[in-house]
Amino acid sequence: MVDDIPVRMFYAGRRWRVTDIPTRLRDSIWATPGEPSRGLYGWRFQATDEAGEAMVFDVYRAETDWHVHHCYI
Predict the structure, then answer these.
(1) Cα 17 to Cα 55: distance, rounded to the nearest angstrom
(2) How many Å apart are CA 55 and CA 27, to the nearest integer?
(3) Does residue 63 have a pLDDT over 60?
């Protein structure tokens, strides 16, 4: 995170760099598995790995760290 905006992450054994303007997700309707939405907030962004593969990620903030909720190819 830079200025509270995602810029890079490590996911599925690869390093990813955010390659678009992230969209903040607030008061969303998505929830964690087995739990209702509890005011989760997160981001949606495109990221590219070192091999040039790009994916779109929805990530949310849990109590202690960040989680990938969904990724789109």
Answers:
(1) 10
(2) 23
(3) yes
Using CA atoms, how far apart are residues 19 and 12, in angstroms rounded to an integer? 18
Token representation of residue 38 = 């509890």
Residues 34, 47: Cα–Cα separation, whole Å? 27
Contacts 24+ apart (CB under 8 A), 10-13: 11/57, 11/68, 11/71
Contact 55, 71 (CB under 8 A): yes
The domain spans of the chain are 8-72
pLDDT tens track for 8-32: 999 999 999 999 999 998 765 555 5
Provide the percentage of residues in the chain whose pLDDT is more than 90. 62
